[in-house]
Design brief:
CATH superfamily of the largest domain in chain A: MetI-like
Number of domains of chain A: 2
Helix content of chain B: over 70%
Oligomer: heterodimer
Helix content of chain A: over 70%
Order of helices and strands of chain A: HHHHHHHHHHHHHHH
Structural class of chain A: mainly alpha
Order of helices and strands of chain B: HHHHHHHHHHHHHHH
CATH architecture of the largest domain in chain A: Orthogonal Bundle
Shape of chain A: globular
Number of helices of chain B: 15
Largest sheet of chain B: none
Radius of gyration of chain B: 26 Å
Shape of chain B: globular
Number of helices of chain A: 15
Number of strands of chain A: 0
Distance between the termini of chain A: 21 Å
């Protein structure tokens, strides 16, 4: 702010040609800065147009056609709202995929966040070793999204896997969980929860921002540990909880890799792991039904936008922002 | 209960109450934390253990570690397919490293424009950039595939262009945002000093912003590498020839062959595929954790 007012005194300074030069200086500079702005921005702008905006418009157009990759563009047929109609009225597997995705997100996301918050509270006190634990808990978030870890996970919950050998210690005979339509999705939920480290790190940062005086004041007022948590920690942490909730929900809807690996790209057993994005992939790239897949993509985008909007509108009632103190 | 006379009780009472906030007693807390560490690490240790078991032990010994360490799965897995895993690793490394370069360069340029330069519609473009932050890649994959295929870039002589072109065009808004946030912390007085010395926008970028943005560049590089190395969706869509496969796509070939004999080699190659990420984690652990803290990006 101070910098923008800096030229003013020199402009009023003595020596007319010097003042003249100064006046021309910033003006010319501002012009070249505008130009430079667009020069520096150009890769991003080209990317925005070519990789994001134009594909989005193309996708919107395709969603009203029966396009498959094999017929040339000139023979593409406009089918109006037929794809959307089919999606909402005549495609049970679409609704099944929606249900699978919602089930996954509704169960896995809250549990993951609860685990993240719980462990963050345990780690919150500053003592030796906290960095080590924090790092170890974060490791699954780095590895968990990979194909390799999904492979390990599927085998762990298979008939001869580590999970059943653990159960047998307690005399329980397990089953091939990943081949059971009632349990396959649950194993993927456990994989998601296992990656609690990333939101945990964000919670830890949020907990550090809570002023110690608030706890002191609360304990002076006779609040026990539980009431301190409810009346101090939770409200002070609510912006971070909100942030994690929005991000994890959106991530949860996009689960693909583990479901692909578990079902070898089919969404099985009996469509129990048919996540939305996997269904979209199968429709577009296995069945080559790209018009229909584009319609699915647009509904997906709108659904995510609506859910985010709902989060933000309800956030007003429970997210507490202390006046510029934190974040 | 410390309810009365807080002023006199404060000096002596404060330390114990401060220590006894949510979290419980230290010993109990340590026990719980160690238990969680076991749960967190068990799958990873089991993975490494299984990769070193003989075929017979994989079936009969479900324990964490093999009775006899047999490295044979690694050699068997390495040449399990017509194309060796060495090739897949090279392909993955090339895609990941080029992505690192592309993201670093293009996001830095865009971030400098957003953070430092004044130009028309800057606010609007910035809002658009923020809007693309949460745009799922699955929404764009079908039209992108069609566009790149129309341009003859899918399955062409060098099939990695569809994977890399977006990375050289700053489409990872996370990194742009991270760098903008970082550059806002660089004192503007430095720009002003360079300006007085006659530097224009390019000179300021070259001599002030570029050298001072190194921490943000390093964070971007590490996350780009790990994300691309682990990425599966885009590589699955755009790579179709066996010799072009990256490690994640090649690993899924093991799933097709459902025979028990492939489990050992499959685990061995899974371990190898996670090794680079793990080494990055060991080397940059602190930075990775700080990285998510400052920017809110996810691992």
């Amino acid at each position: 702010m101070a910098l923008t007012t800096a030229p003013d005194p020199t402009r009023r300074g003595p020596g007319s040609d010097r003042a003249h030069a100064e006046r021309r200086g910033p003006g010319r500079f501002r012009h070249s800065e505008g130009l430079a702005g667009y020069v520096f921005l150009s890769p991003w702008l080209i990317g925005l147009m070519g990789v994001t905006a134009i594909p989005m418009l193309l996708s919107l157009y395709l969603s009203f056609t029966n396009y498959d990759i094999l017929t040339p563009f000139s023979e593409v047929e406009w089918v109006g709202l037929a794809n959307y109609e089919r999606m909402f009225t005549a495609d049970p597997s679409y609704w099944h995929a929606v249900r699978v995705t919602l089930t996954f997100a509704l169960i896995a996301v809250p549990l993951k966040l609860a685990a993240a918050l719980g462990v963050a509270l345990l780690l919150n006190r500053a003592w030796r070793g906290v960095g080590l634990f924090r790092g170890l808990f974060y490791l699954p978030s780095l590895l968990g999204g990979s194909v390799a870890l999904a492979i390990v996970w599927v085998n762990m919950f298979n008939r001869d896997g580590a999970f059943n050998s653990l159960l047998s210690l307690f005399g329980i005979t397990g089953k091939p969980w990943v081949n059971d339509p009632d349990w396959a999705l649950e194993t993927l939920m456990v994989l998601a929860i296992w990656q609690f480290g990333a939101p945990m790190v964000i919670f830890l940062a949020g907990l550090k921002q809570v002023p110690t005086e608030l706890y002191e004041a609360a304990s002076v007022d006779g609040a026990g540990r539980f009431r301190q948590f409810r009346n101090v920690t939770l409200p002070m942490l609510s912006p971070v909880i909100f942030f994690n909730l929005v991000l994890e929900t959106i991530n949860g809807f996009q689960g693909f890799t583990a479901a692909f690996v578990l079902s070898n790209g089919t969404g099985g057993p009996v469509d129990s792991t048919l996540m939305y994005t996997l269904n979209l992939y199968i429709t577009g790239f296995t069945d080559l039904n790209m018009g229909y897949a584009s319609a699915m993509a647009w509904v997906f985008l709108l659904a995510i936008a609506v859910i985010t909007a709902i989060f933000f509108s309800t956030g007003r009632f429970w997210v507490h922002y202390s006046d510029g103190e934190d974040r | 209960m410390v309810t009365v006379t807080p002023t006199t009780a404060a000096p002596t009472a404060a330390p114990p109450t401060a220590r006894r906030r949510p979290g419980g007693r230290p010993v109990l807390r340590l026990v719980i934390l160690v238990a969680i560490v076991v749960v967190v690490l068990y799958p990873l240790i089991w993975m490494v253990g299984t990769s070193l078991k003989s075929q017979e032990e994989i079936v009969n010994n479900v324990g964490l570690l093999p009775e006899r360490f047999t490295p044979g799965n690694y050699t068997a897995g390495w040449s399990n397919f017509d194309v060796s895993f060495g090739r897949f690793f090279l392909n993955s490394a090339m895609v990941s490293l080029l992505t690192v370069i592309g993201n670093g360069l293009s996001c830095l340029l865009a971030a400098y424009a957003f953070a430092r330069l004044r130009f028309r519609l800057r606010g609007m473009w910035f809002a658009v950039m923020i809007g693309t932050l949460l745009l799922p890649q699955h929404v764009l994959i079908v039209p992108q595939y069609i566009l790149f295929r129309t341009l003859g870039l899918v399955g062409g002589d060098w099939p990695y262009l569809p994977l890399l072109i977006p990375q050289f065009l700053a489409t990872e808004a996370f990194f742009v945002f991270l760098m903008v946030q970082f550059m806002r912390g660089v004192p503007r007085e430095l720009d002003e000093a360079a300006r007085i010395d006659g530097a224009g926008p390019f000179g300021i970028f070259r001599h002030i912003i570029l050298p001072l943005s190194r921490p943000a560049l390093v964070t971007t590089a590490i996350f780009s590498f790990i994300w691309t190395w682990n990425d599966f969706f885009r590589q699955l869509v755009f790579l179709s020839q066996l010799e072009d496969y990256t490690v994640p796509v090649a690993l899924t070939l093991f799933i097709d062959s459902t025979s028990q004999s492939a489990v050992g080699p499959m685990f061995a190659m899974s371990v190898l595929s996670l090794l680079p990420v793990f080494l990055f984690f060991v080397a940059f652990q602190r930075m990775l954790v700080e990285g998510i803290n400052t920017s809110g990006i996810k691992g």
